[in-house]
Design brief:
3 helices; Bacterial Protein-export protein SecB; SecB; SecB-like_sf; four-stranded antiparallel sheet; 171 residues; alpha+beta
Length: 171
């Protein structure tokens, strides 16, 4: 009978009575926004009168803070500085702080730290990449297509460094 397959399974009241109720896990992205943005081309227009031979340096940082009950702000800061590879003159400097508000409940300790340090930045970085690309393009330069970033690996490296520093301090 096909109709029986659509019926919900009966719960086991004896098993449920003995267990403590676990807090409900909640994760939602509330808002994505630009917190700070900057573009500078200190050597324009002279920079456009020579062949574009870029030397790119990229700096990437993340931070998070609790704003309210179960509400966290996560910020991904990207700084891209491009210099002429031969003259070392700065072609442009583009910076953005891409932020997001996340509602997170039922996650604590290491899991919360991992969520704020890796998972949330992974969600925000594509917006930062697009914004940097747009800024550079509006500045008259070829698009700067930033490669995807593995925030999981960055977070793991950070935890490893912290553990090494802690062990060196205790010795």
């Amino acid at each position: 009978m096909a109709e029986d397959n659509n019926q919900p399974a009966a719960s086991n009241p004896q098993g449920a009575a003995g267990e403590q109720e676990k807090p409900q896990l909640k994760f939602s992205l509330q808002r994505i926004y630009v917190k700070d943005i900057s573009f500078e081309s200190p050597n324009a227009p002279a920079v456009f009168q020579q062949p574009f031979k870029p030397k790119v340096s990229l700096d990437l940082n993340t931070s998070s803070s609790q704003i309210g009950d179960d509400l966290y702000e996560v910020v991904v800061k990207v700084t891209a500085e491009v210099k002429h590879s031969e003259t070392e003159n700065t072609s442009f400097l583009a910076e953005i702080e891409q932020a997001g508000l996340f509602r997170i409940a039922g996650i604590e300790g290491q899991q919360l730290e991992h969520t704020l340090g890796a998972f949330c930045p992974n969600m925000l970085f594509p917006y930062a990449r697009e914004c940097i690309d747009n800024l550079v393009n509006r500045g008259g330069f070829p698009p700067l297509m930033l490669a995807p970033v593995n925030f999981e690996a960055i977070y793991a490296q950070k935890k490893k460094r912290e553990a090494q520093q802690a062990s060196e301090t205790t010795q």
